[in-house]
Amino acid sequence: MYWLIGSFIILAMMGVLAVADNTPIPIMPLFMDSASTPVLTISFVLLTFILILISQFTIPSAYPTNSIKSTPHHSRFASRILYFISIAILASTLVIGSGLHALVSHQQADDQKITEPMRVQALVHIEGISDSVYDAGTDTGYRQVAIISQILPLVSELTAQDLDKVTAEYGAGLNNSLSGDDIKYESSNAISSHQNTLAENAVQDKIYRVLLNAYPKKPAKQSSKTNSQKKSKKSKKTEKQSQIADLNHLQPGDRLFMTLTLAPLATSEQVSNNPSGFDSYRWLRSRHIDGVANILATSSSSISSSISSSISSSISSSILPSSHPQIHSNSHLLSSDSYLTRLRTAIDQGRWQLRQHFYKDWATNTAAEQQAKAVTLSLLTGDRSLINRETKDLYQLAGILHLLAISGTHVLFLAIVLAGIVILLANRMYTALYRYIPRWHVRWWVMISAAFIYALFTGFDVPAARTAWMLLAIGLTRLTLLPVSTMRVLFALAVLMAWHDPYVLWQAGYWLSFIAVALLLKYEDTSQNQPLTSNQPFTSYDKLLRRLWLSFKRLFKLQCWLFLALLPVTLLLFGKASLWGLIVNLFAIGLFGWIIVPLNLLAGLCYLILPSVADIIWMLVTAIVSNLHELIAWLTSMPVLSDAWLYTPVNAAILLMALLTLLPWLLPSGLISRWLVLPPLSLLVMTVYANQQLLTMTPTLYILPTGDHYISATLLQYPIVNDKDAKNTSWLFLADHRPSNTKIKTMPSNLTADKFSAMLAQQLGSLSVNKLEGIVVQSSSSGVTDSRVYDKKSSAVSPNDSELLPMIVAQLSQRLPVSQYWQAGRSERWSALHQAYKVTTDSQKTATISAQRCESGKIWQLPDGNLTLQAITGWSKIDDASVWDCTMAIDSSTPIRVLKYQANDPLKSLPANSQTLMSKSQQPIDQANMWQSRLILNADTHERTWQMWSLLCSTDLTNSNIAMNHTTWLGHSTSHIPNEVITQQQIDEIITYDNKPLEVALSSDALFKEGD
């Protein structure tokens, strides 16, 4: 019953959050105003205690025999009915109340969030330390959680000097007006004298918790301007960059004025278009972020601490009335005078100072030394701001990314060490202490204090907070002599943390932390009965070898147990799992747990007393970490496990069957026979296989998200029925749709070849693609073309000046087998480019692929004729790059569904939005020569492409006796396709990569309707 009710509580809260996030659920305003998180949590705890007491109450069946005989049967039956009814009522109240609690929390957060973009001037309160540092050299941006208030609409651009004036006037106004009832008006007058006319429109009663962003901007191409204009613009840009770089010096608790561009959180559609599958909305919402704010300008001076300490009380007591809903929804934002907040700010300032100590002389270190220092800092304080993307990818590939987080091991180790030191000192200096307090009480209080302080110092994330609260709960159960197991304490703590903050259920760390500890507890219970020694006589050397072998065997079993048990959860949360983790964790966990982390914590303690000694220890730790990075990089580059990622789409059904499979091992030994694991295990294998077949055996064209509105990537998966060697064929189509007309200005792509190819490899792996029949680059590129072609005619329009797409082909061909490569335009320099890439990257693979011209008339067909790929545009023999783009036609005997790939859940990829055209005239169709469907993948970047097609190919299409049941056009909204081509191609449906309507279809006299 205990586990059943707790599971229902968590499932009810998760279900309410999921439904409320997609569908508005009405709730009474009275309940919204009266409900608060502390009150509800305390109420749930009291109800839980009552439920436990009733469940432990001795019912009549447990009475002595004489009492049972003397008690009437109907009385015993009535008391039993009353017993079960009371338990059912309390359990239902807990489950329903928990769901309502989650709904109230969601509604409060929804009412507080930013709903529309706006440019504002605001007072910014820095909260905690930043997630990353601003560094233009490494192209990393500044991200910081902050609270903004005193918000004014921005009608003109303000400089740092203007904001400094605002800061001075605001501080002077608060000094003169903190006492009295007129603070609302005087504080308004203290804001920027040149914006007094906006005081009436100020949204000072709004307080938001936002994520500040500031990223280095890539230099744009300079247009023809005078030297004075260029110099002035350059000086302003340099001044702004230096000002933004000063953001790294902002400490927790600082308050200053900024001009910001506020934006709401990403919608569910925007999250689904994320190429990596990362759900930024849930990540930000779980941190109680109301919106994002891009920094435009900042003041160079912050408000003094004496003034800032009274700002929150001024806002809460004078600007906002006591009945204002903002007080209830943001009470945690307004109570910055509390002792806990002051303690948290002081601890965060200590974390910031320690980061500055590591960041000192950062540019003088090599990249390897920088990342070794960054990992050392992360293992000490949980601060990952200095770790770059490459190091995170390395740890993720090795399956040891969890070691970078501050886990319960760090907290528990420090607590045990400090408790041991205190007990040792007490034993030597003050043994009389034990007359008043038992020794284990002293050890327990020291461990709890150390655990909570260190958990606060590391950000009080879920793993660290879970360890601190578990130490407190286990100590209380021992102190009160309650017969409660550690597993029940762990489960109760999981429910309590969900009651305290329902959004913690959206954090991956919450699930991984509690599930991993539960698995460790179950493994420990089953491994205690295994003997370590044998009765046969052995020498001391043999005993040592035997103990080492048994220890390694036990560690390997434990690692396999954790890897297999956490595999479904890992695949559900992240969509992939690294096979290297099973091997690397065998030595990495011991190295981190017994050498790196203890030395790091020792250095942290020495830093408080002898910083020079701490620096020496940190030098040793960084050297160990640096060598570990080299070892992991060498291991992961071995060709034995080059494809180390396991991609298997996991849904709730698969997770449930995996839980049923592990149930005999999770429950007490002997309760359920382990032979019963065979039915759910067989069903699990069959379901996974069925999901794989669903992804590979249905003709599908996936529109893959790329992160760039002009670059498209589509994957065709087509099943092969009568081929024993291959079950399906896969083609990848890449195109850059930036208009080649120089009059149309577009932003350059921020994608890199390494980032894009890794992203595509992950997407292909999640769709069970381990081989590509071909890659078609539909856009021409100067990176693989002889540059002399563009010098012959000044009017010739050159293709995109980029090697991005050809480099993607080069990198993907080293990751998985590729049979063919079609390149639009000319590709004279492809061999040299490919060879240079292999030499530069020192690739061990010798796969070489030649480029074929993708030009009009080129055809590829399956042997059975069910699938045909044909290039219908592209004339590379003409010395005009504007007619080189290659539009592909895919003819299939079976319908091909077009889906928008969702990286977070490929099984839930939805059909693409479309415009359905109603044909004006139906030509007679020869049923014998009719194909089922045609897909046209358009890639034109200039109007000359379709003009050339109309001149050369439209007659061939008219004379052709092959017709289609359904023709779908897929391209970019900036396409230059004319209405005549749409009519001649008999297009029935139009889909665009950027989800914008095609203008020629809107202006066409053909009737159309929006498709789903």
Notable traits:
1012 residues; alpha/beta; 8-stranded mixed beta sheet
Detailed description of the structure:
By secondary structure, the chain is of the alpha/beta class. The protein contains 34 helices and 23 strands. It has an 8-stranded mixed beta sheet with strand order 13-12-11-10-9-8-17-18, covered by helices on one side. An 8-stranded mixed beta sheet has the order 14-15-16-20-21-22-19-23, with no helix packed on it. Strand 8 and strand 9 form a beta hairpin. Helix 3 runs antiparallel to helix 5 and helix 23 packs across helix 24. The two termini are 46 Å apart. The C terminus is likely disordered.
User: Structural class per helix/strand content?
Assistant: alpha/beta
Number of helices: 34
Strand content: 5-15%
Taking pLDDT < 50 over at least 5 consecutive residues as the criterion, the unreliable ranges are 58-63, 178-202, 220-225, 312-336, 525-530, 788-801, 920-930, 1005-1012
Which word captures the global form? Answer: globular
- Taking all residues together, what is the mean pLDDT? 76
The whole-angstrom Rg is: 33 Å
Count of extended strands: 23
Strand order of the largest sheet: 13-12-11-10-9-8-17-18
Distance between the termini: 46 Å
Helix share, percent: 40-55%
Please, what is the oligomeric state? single chain
Can you summarize the main beta sheet? 8 strands, mixed
Chain-wise SSE layout:
Elements: H1 2-22, H2 29-34, H3 37-55, H4 65-70, H5 73-112, E1 118-126, E2 142-153, H6 160-177, H7 183-189, E3 208-214, H8 227-245, E4 255-263, H9 268-272, H10 280-286, E5 291-298, H11 305-308, H12 311-319, H13 325-329, H14 331-334, H15 339-359, H16 367-381, H17 389-398, H18 408-429, H19 439-457, H20 462-480, H21 486-500, H22 508-527, H23 540-574, E6 577-578, H24 581-609, H25 611-636, E7 645-646, H26 652-666, H27 678-696, E8 700-704, E9 711-719, E10 728-736, H28 753-766, E11 772-777, H29 804-815, E12 818-824, H30 830-841, E13 852-854, E14 859-861, E15 867-871, E16 888-892, E17 897-900, E18 910-911, E19 914-918, E20 930-937, H31 944-952, H32 954-959, E21 963-971, H33 979-984, E22 989-992, H34 999-1003, E23 1007-1011
